[in-house]
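Render this sequence as a predicted structure.
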Amino acid sequence: MKSSTTEKLKPRKQPVQERSGVTVDAIYTATIQVLLADDMNKLTTTRVAERAGVSVGTLYQYFPNKEALLYAILLKHFEEMARAYEEIAAHHPPAPLSELAACIADTYVSVKMVNPDATEAMYRVAGAINQVRMSSNVFARIGMAICNLLAQASDATFKDPKQVTFTVLSSLAGLSRASFGQLAAGSDALARLQDESRLVAQAYLHAAADKDA
C-alpha cells in the first residue's frame, strides 16, 4: 500500500530538454511564491500554473495533482541537501571532531540559506506531506554522507554512527525550523542560525563520541 501511494506522488515525466527543464523550474518557483503569498489551503494547481505562465495541462504533464507537486518540491530540497553532504564527504580529509561537527552544521545551514524564502515555503510543505511516504533513498544518502564524515574524525570514534547521525540531523532540523518560524516575529534567530547550529552539533557530537585522545 505504501509503495502504491508513493508511486502516485512521483512526477509523471522528467524534463529531458532544456526547455522542459525551464518549465519545471518555473513551476517550482511559482509554487514557492504562492505558498509564501497565501495560506497553504489556498494553493491550487490552477494558481500555480497561472503564476508560472503555463497552462494547467502543461503542469499536469509533470505533476498529476497538488500533492505530487508538493512532494516534488520537498524531495528536490532533500536531494540538494544530499548532494551537498556527499560533495563534502568525498573530499574532506581527516580532521578533529570539532571541525567536522562545524562542517556538518555549516553544510546544513548553507543549503537552507541559499534561498531563505524557498526554505520557509519548504517548511509549510513539510507540514502537509507525510515524509515517511517519500523515497527513503534520499535520506539514506544524507545519512551515509554524514557517517562518512564522522569516520574522518582524527580524535574520536562512535559506537553507533547511524544513531548519532540521526540525532544530530534531527537537532539541526528542529533548530532550523524554529528559526525560520520566527521570521514573521522579526526575530534575529535566522542571523544566529549558523552559530547556534555549530554549538548544537559540536556539543552533541563531543558528548556522543568515544574519545581516542
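Summary. The two ends are 50 Å apart (CA to CA). The longest helix spans residues 66-91.
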